[in-house]
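Good morning C.,

I know you're traveling, so I'll keep this short. The sequence:
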Amino acid sequence: MASGETFLFNPENEGLIMGEKKQPAFDSSVGCLALIMVPFVLGGLLILGLAVSEWVRVVRLSTDFAVVNARLVSLEIDSNDDTNSYYVTYRFPVDGHEQTITEAVDFRLFYSLAEDIPFEVRYVRSDPQTATIKPLRLTTAIAGSLFALLWNALVIPVTFFAAANYRRQRQLSRYGHILLGEIVSCRGKSGDDNKFTLEVSYRFRPPRAPRAIEGRESRLRNDLTDQALPQSGTTVRILYLNEKNFCLL
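The tokens, ready to paste straight into the viewer:
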């Protein structure tokens, strides 16, 4: 391609430049990523809520509690694929009446219980439905909190990045205008998967701007694998909104 000819970095934007389309061709994966991340954000909030709930439970069982003897009502094993879940139903006296609780336990505690042998239960005085026969340990609450923090520390930044990029694209699409620029350098490289990546450095000067703005973008262009690449000085078009929001067309 000779210097002076206009080069389309993304051929799908030809209709926009010719006035046949009103919207630029953006990478749809940005919007898709933002949508895909929504369930992960909701899952992170749920995990965080469960971690907070576990801490509240531990604190209440550690500060406002009573310990009494309980009697076994039933033992139940729930088999699901290759895993078993163990449930204990027990009954204990509270203020003249009996409270019945079903609790998930590990298999060691499950098999240590017998109908004729009483065992201790710890419950919250103001809420007897909050009770446990398991040893009160902080490890579960700490592990849940660390997992919730790690999950949200990974998910929230990715979601924020995807949402910000999607918003940036929408604003550029709605309010951006087309400017002329020129290629500074252009190079292509072929990957092991026979995909040809084009990398273009370019510059342009917006109206009333004190200096030129430079940018660099890369894109898969398998159609240029065996073609001559645009030279330095080749004209390009840029969709421009401000100094931080623009793209090569």
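Safe travels,
E.
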